[in-house]
Amino acid sequence: MSKFKKKKDGGLPPISTASLPDIVFMLLFFFMVATVIKEDNLKIQNNLPQANQIEKLDKRKPISYIYIGKPSRNYVDTYGTEDRIQLNDALKSPDAVQAFIASERAALPEELVPLLIVSLKVDRDAKMGALTDVKQELRKTNALKINYTTKKGESISSSRN
Amino acid sequence: MADIAFLLLIFFLVTTDIATDSGLNRKLPPWEEDPQDTEVVIKEKNIFTINVNSADRIMVTQKGESDPIDLDNLRKEAVKFLDNGGGKGADACKYCKGARDPRSSDNFDKAVISLSNNRLTKYKTYIAVQNEIIAAYNEIRNREFIREYPGEGINYVQANDEYLDPATPPNRRENLKTKLEAIRILVPQKFSEAETK
Protein backbone atom coordinates (compact mmCIF):
# COMPACT_ATOMS: atom_id res chain seq x y z
CA MET A 1 0.00 0.00 0.00
CA SER A 2 1.60 3.18 -1.06
CA LYS A 3 0.55 6.50 0.33
CA PHE A 4 0.40 8.10 -3.05
CA LYS A 5 -2.25 6.34 -5.01
CA LYS A 6 -1.59 6.42 -8.67
CA LYS A 7 -4.33 8.40 -10.42
CA LYS A 8 -6.75 6.18 -12.15
CA ASP A 9 -6.56 6.48 -15.91
CA GLY A 10 -10.13 7.39 -16.82
CA GLY A 11 -9.62 7.70 -20.58
CA LEU A 12 -9.63 11.07 -22.37
CA PRO A 13 -10.90 14.05 -20.43
CA PRO A 14 -14.08 15.58 -21.96
CA ILE A 15 -13.43 18.34 -24.51
CA SER A 16 -14.09 21.75 -23.06
CA THR A 17 -16.97 23.51 -24.76
CA ALA A 18 -16.34 26.81 -23.01
CA SER A 19 -15.12 28.42 -26.24
CA LEU A 20 -18.01 27.15 -28.34
CA PRO A 21 -20.12 30.34 -28.03
CA ASP A 22 -17.12 32.42 -29.10
CA ILE A 23 -16.65 30.34 -32.22
CA VAL A 24 -20.33 30.38 -33.11
CA PHE A 25 -20.55 34.14 -32.55
CA MET A 26 -17.54 34.62 -34.78
CA LEU A 27 -19.28 32.65 -37.55
CA LEU A 28 -22.48 34.59 -36.95
CA PHE A 29 -20.73 37.95 -37.30
CA PHE A 30 -18.96 36.75 -40.43
CA PHE A 31 -22.26 35.83 -42.07
CA MET A 32 -23.95 39.02 -40.91
CA VAL A 33 -21.21 41.11 -42.51
CA ALA A 34 -20.58 39.10 -45.67
CA THR A 35 -24.16 38.48 -46.78
CA VAL A 36 -27.24 40.49 -47.60
CA ILE A 37 -30.92 39.70 -47.11
CA LYS A 38 -32.27 37.77 -50.09
CA GLU A 39 -33.94 40.00 -52.67
CA ASP A 40 -36.28 37.38 -54.00
CA ASN A 41 -37.06 33.79 -53.25
CA LEU A 42 -35.85 31.96 -56.32
CA LYS A 43 -38.04 29.34 -57.95
CA ILE A 44 -35.49 28.68 -60.66
CA GLN A 45 -31.94 27.42 -60.82
CA ASN A 46 -29.66 30.42 -60.85
CA ASN A 47 -26.01 29.52 -61.08
CA LEU A 48 -24.42 32.65 -62.56
CA PRO A 49 -21.65 32.42 -65.17
CA GLN A 50 -18.18 33.86 -64.62
CA ALA A 51 -16.50 36.82 -66.29
CA ASN A 52 -13.45 38.93 -65.55
CA GLN A 53 -14.14 42.27 -67.26
CA ILE A 54 -16.78 43.11 -64.71
CA GLU A 55 -17.81 46.44 -63.24
CA LYS A 56 -19.40 46.93 -59.85
CA LEU A 57 -23.07 47.81 -59.91
CA ASP A 58 -23.58 51.30 -58.55
CA LYS A 59 -25.75 50.77 -55.46
CA ARG A 60 -26.77 54.44 -55.40
CA LYS A 61 -28.71 53.87 -58.60
CA PRO A 62 -31.96 51.92 -58.62
CA ILE A 63 -31.62 48.27 -59.69
CA SER A 64 -34.32 45.85 -60.81
CA TYR A 65 -33.68 42.14 -61.02
CA ILE A 66 -34.86 39.70 -63.69
CA TYR A 67 -34.00 36.03 -63.24
CA ILE A 68 -33.92 33.40 -65.97
CA GLY A 69 -33.31 29.69 -65.58
CA LYS A 70 -34.83 26.24 -65.45
CA PRO A 71 -37.39 25.76 -62.66
CA SER A 72 -35.80 24.23 -59.57
CA ARG A 73 -36.53 20.63 -58.75
CA ASN A 74 -39.51 21.39 -56.50
CA TYR A 75 -41.27 23.28 -59.28
CA VAL A 76 -40.60 20.99 -62.24
CA ASP A 77 -44.03 19.39 -61.88
CA THR A 78 -45.76 22.77 -62.05
CA TYR A 79 -43.61 24.67 -64.51
CA GLY A 80 -41.81 22.05 -66.61
CA THR A 81 -38.14 21.96 -67.52
CA GLU A 82 -37.87 24.79 -70.04
CA ASP A 83 -36.16 28.09 -69.15
CA ARG A 84 -38.50 30.44 -67.34
CA ILE A 85 -38.42 34.11 -66.37
CA GLN A 86 -38.88 35.10 -62.74
CA LEU A 87 -40.08 38.60 -61.87
CA ASN A 88 -40.37 39.36 -58.16
CA ASP A 89 -41.70 36.14 -56.68
CA ALA A 90 -43.46 34.58 -59.65
CA LEU A 91 -42.58 32.87 -62.89
CA LYS A 92 -43.94 34.94 -65.76
CA SER A 93 -43.98 35.01 -69.54
CA PRO A 94 -41.91 37.58 -71.47
CA ASP A 95 -45.05 39.72 -72.03
CA ALA A 96 -45.07 40.55 -68.32
CA VAL A 97 -41.67 42.27 -68.46
CA GLN A 98 -43.06 45.61 -69.62
CA ALA A 99 -45.60 45.72 -66.78
CA PHE A 100 -42.88 44.72 -64.31
CA ILE A 101 -40.60 47.57 -65.42
CA ALA A 102 -43.53 49.98 -65.27
CA SER A 103 -44.27 48.99 -61.68
CA GLU A 104 -40.59 49.24 -60.73
CA ARG A 105 -40.51 52.72 -62.22
CA ALA A 106 -43.70 53.74 -60.44
CA ALA A 107 -42.09 52.89 -57.11
CA LEU A 108 -39.14 55.22 -57.74
CA PRO A 109 -38.81 58.97 -57.22
CA GLU A 110 -39.10 60.64 -60.60
CA GLU A 111 -35.49 61.84 -60.84
CA LEU A 112 -34.18 58.28 -60.45
CA VAL A 113 -36.39 56.71 -63.15
CA PRO A 114 -33.96 57.28 -66.07
CA LEU A 115 -31.10 55.79 -64.01
CA LEU A 116 -32.80 52.41 -63.54
CA ILE A 117 -30.47 49.50 -64.28
CA VAL A 118 -31.89 46.08 -65.02
CA SER A 119 -29.72 43.35 -63.59
CA LEU A 120 -30.16 40.15 -65.60
CA LYS A 121 -29.38 37.14 -63.47
CA VAL A 122 -29.37 34.31 -65.95
CA ASP A 123 -28.41 30.72 -65.23
CA ARG A 124 -25.17 29.76 -66.95
CA ASP A 125 -26.80 26.77 -68.67
CA ALA A 126 -29.86 28.67 -69.86
CA LYS A 127 -30.43 29.12 -73.57
CA MET A 128 -30.36 32.56 -75.17
CA GLY A 129 -33.98 32.34 -76.35
CA ALA A 130 -35.67 33.53 -73.15
CA LEU A 131 -33.05 36.23 -72.63
CA THR A 132 -33.53 37.48 -76.19
CA ASP A 133 -37.27 37.83 -75.59
CA VAL A 134 -36.63 39.74 -72.36
CA LYS A 135 -34.16 42.06 -74.09
CA GLN A 136 -36.70 42.84 -76.83
CA GLU A 137 -39.33 43.67 -74.21
CA LEU A 138 -36.85 45.88 -72.34
CA ARG A 139 -36.12 47.74 -75.56
CA LYS A 140 -39.83 48.26 -76.17
CA THR A 141 -40.29 49.76 -72.73
CA ASN A 142 -37.09 51.80 -73.08
CA ALA A 143 -35.22 50.24 -70.15
CA LEU A 144 -31.91 50.20 -71.97
CA LYS A 145 -29.33 50.03 -69.19
CA ILE A 146 -28.69 46.39 -68.48
CA ASN A 147 -26.13 44.44 -66.54
CA TYR A 148 -25.38 40.78 -67.16
CA THR A 149 -24.70 39.93 -63.53
CA THR A 150 -21.84 37.46 -63.23
CA LYS A 151 -19.42 36.11 -60.70
CA LYS A 152 -15.79 37.04 -60.88
CA GLY A 153 -13.71 34.36 -62.53
CA GLU A 154 -12.27 33.06 -65.76
CA SER A 155 -14.97 33.18 -68.41
CA ILE A 156 -13.35 31.04 -71.10
CA SER A 157 -12.46 28.01 -68.99
CA SER A 158 -15.73 28.16 -67.06
CA SER A 159 -17.79 28.32 -70.26
CA ARG A 160 -16.39 24.93 -71.29
CA ASN A 161 -17.76 22.89 -68.43
CA MET B 1 -25.30 31.06 -24.95
CA ALA B 2 -24.09 28.84 -27.74
CA ASP B 3 -27.68 27.76 -28.43
CA ILE B 4 -28.82 31.33 -28.97
CA ALA B 5 -25.83 32.06 -31.16
CA PHE B 6 -26.53 28.93 -33.21
CA LEU B 7 -30.14 29.93 -33.61
CA LEU B 8 -29.16 33.37 -34.88
CA LEU B 9 -26.49 31.88 -37.12
CA ILE B 10 -28.95 29.49 -38.74
CA PHE B 11 -31.47 32.30 -39.18
CA PHE B 12 -28.87 34.38 -41.05
CA LEU B 13 -27.74 31.41 -43.11
CA VAL B 14 -31.29 30.81 -44.30
CA THR B 15 -32.46 34.37 -44.97
CA THR B 16 -29.36 35.85 -46.57
CA ASP B 17 -27.43 35.47 -49.74
CA ILE B 18 -23.87 36.29 -50.71
CA ALA B 19 -24.30 39.41 -52.82
CA THR B 20 -23.25 39.32 -56.46
CA ASP B 21 -23.34 42.96 -57.41
CA SER B 22 -21.02 43.03 -60.36
CA GLY B 23 -21.30 42.14 -63.99
CA LEU B 24 -20.97 43.23 -67.59
CA ASN B 25 -22.69 46.56 -68.22
CA ARG B 26 -24.36 46.86 -71.58
CA LYS B 27 -26.70 49.30 -73.24
CA LEU B 28 -29.52 48.09 -75.46
CA PRO B 29 -30.40 49.97 -78.64
CA PRO B 30 -33.77 51.77 -78.54
CA TRP B 31 -36.72 49.96 -80.08
CA GLU B 32 -37.42 50.77 -83.71
CA GLU B 33 -40.88 50.17 -85.13
CA ASP B 34 -39.50 49.98 -88.63
CA PRO B 35 -35.77 49.18 -88.70
CA GLN B 36 -35.61 49.74 -92.46
CA ASP B 37 -35.95 53.51 -91.93
CA THR B 38 -32.74 53.88 -90.03
CA GLU B 39 -30.40 51.57 -91.87
CA VAL B 40 -26.88 52.86 -91.86
CA VAL B 41 -24.33 51.97 -94.46
CA ILE B 42 -21.03 50.78 -93.02
CA LYS B 43 -18.09 49.69 -95.10
CA GLU B 44 -17.51 45.96 -94.93
CA LYS B 45 -13.92 46.43 -93.82
CA ASN B 46 -15.08 48.29 -90.72
CA ILE B 47 -17.25 45.43 -89.45
CA PHE B 48 -16.06 42.51 -87.37
CA THR B 49 -18.94 40.04 -87.24
CA ILE B 50 -19.09 37.38 -84.56
CA ASN B 51 -21.67 34.65 -84.93
CA VAL B 52 -22.31 32.08 -82.21
CA ASN B 53 -24.36 29.10 -83.38
CA SER B 54 -26.61 26.70 -81.49
CA ALA B 55 -23.70 24.35 -80.80
CA ASP B 56 -21.75 27.21 -79.16
CA ARG B 57 -19.26 27.37 -82.03
CA ILE B 58 -17.96 30.80 -82.98
CA MET B 59 -17.51 32.18 -86.48
CA VAL B 60 -15.81 35.48 -87.27
CA THR B 61 -16.33 37.38 -90.51
CA GLN B 62 -13.81 40.08 -91.42
CA LYS B 63 -12.04 41.22 -94.59
CA GLY B 64 -14.77 39.39 -96.50
CA GLU B 65 -13.79 36.00 -95.13
CA SER B 66 -15.54 33.82 -92.56
CA ASP B 67 -13.51 31.57 -90.31
CA PRO B 68 -14.38 29.49 -87.29
CA ILE B 69 -12.45 30.75 -84.28
CA ASP B 70 -11.61 29.51 -80.81
CA LEU B 71 -12.66 31.54 -77.75
CA ASP B 72 -9.00 31.83 -76.72
CA ASN B 73 -8.12 33.71 -79.92
CA LEU B 74 -11.18 35.95 -80.04
CA ARG B 75 -9.74 38.74 -77.89
CA LYS B 76 -6.50 38.86 -79.88
CA GLU B 77 -8.39 39.01 -83.20
CA ALA B 78 -10.74 41.71 -81.92
CA VAL B 79 -7.84 43.85 -80.69
CA LYS B 80 -6.08 43.37 -84.03
CA PHE B 81 -9.22 44.53 -85.83
CA LEU B 82 -9.88 47.54 -83.58
CA ASP B 83 -6.25 48.63 -83.52
CA ASN B 84 -5.67 48.19 -87.26
CA GLY B 85 -5.84 51.83 -88.32
CA GLY B 86 -5.99 51.29 -92.05
CA GLY B 87 -7.65 54.66 -92.72
CA LYS B 88 -6.11 57.32 -94.97
CA GLY B 89 -6.50 61.11 -94.94
CA ALA B 90 -9.46 62.20 -92.81
CA ASP B 91 -9.98 58.62 -91.57
CA ALA B 92 -6.36 58.15 -90.53
CA CYS B 93 -5.93 56.74 -87.04
CA LYS B 94 -3.49 58.74 -84.94
CA TYR B 95 -2.92 56.31 -82.09
CA CYS B 96 -3.55 52.89 -83.67
CA LYS B 97 -0.60 50.55 -83.35
CA GLY B 98 -1.93 47.82 -85.65
CA ALA B 99 -0.87 46.46 -89.03
CA ARG B 100 -2.54 49.32 -91.00
CA ASP B 101 -4.06 46.74 -93.35
CA PRO B 102 -6.23 48.65 -95.85
CA ARG B 103 -8.71 45.72 -95.91
CA SER B 104 -9.40 46.02 -92.16
CA SER B 105 -10.82 48.81 -89.94
CA ASP B 106 -10.02 52.51 -90.54
CA ASN B 107 -9.85 53.78 -86.97
CA PHE B 108 -11.27 53.32 -83.44
CA ASP B 109 -14.30 55.41 -84.24
CA LYS B 110 -15.21 53.56 -87.45
CA ALA B 111 -14.62 50.01 -86.24
CA VAL B 112 -17.83 48.16 -85.38
CA ILE B 113 -18.07 44.80 -83.66
CA SER B 114 -21.29 42.98 -84.40
CA LEU B 115 -22.51 39.96 -82.47
CA SER B 116 -25.29 37.61 -83.39
CA ASN B 117 -26.37 34.45 -81.67
CA ASN B 118 -28.86 31.65 -82.03
CA ARG B 119 -31.79 31.13 -79.66
CA LEU B 120 -30.19 27.85 -78.62
CA THR B 121 -26.78 29.34 -77.82
CA LYS B 122 -25.86 28.70 -74.19
CA TYR B 123 -25.78 31.78 -71.98
CA LYS B 124 -22.33 30.93 -70.59
CA THR B 125 -20.83 30.98 -74.09
CA TYR B 126 -22.58 34.25 -74.87
CA ILE B 127 -21.16 35.78 -71.67
CA ALA B 128 -17.69 34.48 -72.48
CA VAL B 129 -17.90 36.12 -75.94
CA GLN B 130 -19.23 39.38 -74.47
CA ASN B 131 -16.43 39.25 -71.91
CA GLU B 132 -13.80 38.89 -74.63
CA ILE B 133 -15.25 41.82 -76.61
CA ILE B 134 -15.19 44.05 -73.53
CA ALA B 135 -11.68 42.80 -72.75
CA ALA B 136 -10.53 43.81 -76.25
CA TYR B 137 -11.92 47.33 -75.81
CA ASN B 138 -10.47 47.55 -72.30
CA GLU B 139 -7.05 46.51 -73.57
CA ILE B 140 -6.97 49.42 -76.02
CA ARG B 141 -8.57 51.85 -73.57
CA ASN B 142 -5.97 50.93 -70.92
CA ARG B 143 -3.18 51.63 -73.35
CA GLU B 144 -4.68 54.94 -74.44
CA PHE B 145 -5.40 56.00 -70.85
CA ILE B 146 -1.78 55.41 -69.84
CA ARG B 147 -0.53 57.26 -72.92
CA GLU B 148 -2.89 60.20 -72.38
CA TYR B 149 -2.51 60.52 -68.59
CA PRO B 150 0.87 59.04 -67.62
CA GLY B 151 0.82 61.06 -64.38
CA GLU B 152 -2.08 59.01 -63.00
CA GLY B 153 -0.07 55.80 -62.81
CA ILE B 154 -3.23 53.72 -63.31
CA ASN B 155 -4.98 52.29 -66.34
CA TYR B 156 -8.52 52.76 -67.63
CA VAL B 157 -10.06 49.84 -65.76
CA GLN B 158 -8.46 50.85 -62.46
CA ALA B 159 -9.59 54.45 -62.99
CA ASN B 160 -13.13 53.28 -63.69
CA ASP B 161 -13.14 51.11 -60.56
CA GLU B 162 -11.92 54.05 -58.51
CA TYR B 163 -14.63 56.23 -60.05
CA LEU B 164 -17.34 53.72 -59.13
CA ASP B 165 -16.00 53.21 -55.60
CA PRO B 166 -18.29 55.08 -53.15
CA ALA B 167 -15.28 55.82 -50.91
CA THR B 168 -13.63 58.03 -53.56
CA PRO B 169 -13.89 61.77 -52.68
CA PRO B 170 -16.16 63.85 -54.99
CA ASN B 171 -13.47 66.13 -56.45
CA ARG B 172 -11.36 63.09 -57.37
CA ARG B 173 -14.45 61.51 -58.97
CA GLU B 174 -15.04 64.62 -61.10
CA ASN B 175 -11.42 64.60 -62.18
CA LEU B 176 -11.58 60.91 -63.13
CA LYS B 177 -14.93 61.33 -64.87
CA THR B 178 -13.58 63.85 -67.40
CA LYS B 179 -10.58 61.63 -68.13
CA LEU B 180 -12.68 58.48 -68.48
CA GLU B 181 -15.08 60.23 -70.80
CA ALA B 182 -12.24 61.53 -72.96
CA ILE B 183 -10.99 57.98 -73.40
CA ARG B 184 -14.51 56.69 -74.10
CA ILE B 185 -14.84 59.26 -76.88
CA LEU B 186 -11.41 58.38 -78.27
CA VAL B 187 -12.11 54.61 -78.22
CA PRO B 188 -15.91 54.27 -78.40
CA GLN B 189 -17.54 50.88 -77.97
CA LYS B 190 -19.24 50.58 -81.33
CA PHE B 191 -20.93 47.33 -80.61
CA SER B 192 -24.06 46.07 -82.27
CA GLU B 193 -26.20 43.04 -81.68
CA ALA B 194 -28.08 41.62 -84.59
CA GLU B 195 -31.58 40.39 -83.92
CA THR B 196 -31.69 36.75 -83.10
CA LYS B 197 -33.20 34.54 -85.73
Topology:
The complex is a heterodimer of chains A (161) and B (197).
Chain A: H1 20-34, E1 35-37, E2 50-51, E3 55-56, E4 63-69, H2 76-79, E5 84-87, E6 90-92, H3 96-106, E7 117-122, H4 128-140, E8 145-149, E9 151-152, H5 155-159
Parallel strand pairs in A: 2-9, 4-7, 7-8
Antiparallel strand pairs in A: 4-5, 5-6
Chain B: H1 2-15, E1 16-18, E2 22-27, E3 47-52, E4 58-62, E5 65-69, H2 71-82, E6 112-117, H3 123-148, H4 156-164, H5 170-186, E7 191-193
Parallel strand pairs in B: 3-6, 6-7
Antiparallel strand pairs in B: 3-4, 4-5
Helix pairs in contact in B: 2-3, 3-5, 4-5
Largest interface: A-B, 62 and 53 residues
Strand order of the biggest β-sheet of chain A: 6-5-4-7-8
Main beta-sheet strand count, sense and barrel state of chain A: 5 strands, mixed
- Described by the principal axes of the CA atoms, the overall outline of chain B is globular
The backbone outline of chain A, from C-alpha atoms, is elongated
The CATH class assignment of the domain at 59-152 in chain A is Alpha Beta
Our estimate of the beta-strand percent of chain A is 15-25%
CATH topology of chain B: Nucleotidyltransferase, domain 5
Return Rg of chain A in Å: 25 Å
Strand count, sense and barrel status of the largest sheet of chain B are: 5 strands, mixed
**What is the N-to-C succession of helices and strands of chain B?**
HEEEEEHEHHHE
Helix/strand/pairing category of chain A: alpha/beta
Q: Which structural class should the secondary elements of chain B be placed in? A: alpha/beta
Determine the fraction of residues in helical runs of chain A and give it as a percent range. 25-40%
CATH fold naming of the domain at 59-152 in chain A: Nucleotidyltransferase, domain 5
Number of strands of chain B: 7
| CATH architect. name of the domain at 59-152 in chain A | 2-Layer Sandwich
Distance between the termini of chain A: 74 Å
Subcellular location (chain B): Cell membrane
GO biological process, one term (chain B): protein transport
GO cellular component, one term (chain B): plasma membrane
Family (chain B): Belongs to the ExbD/TolR family.
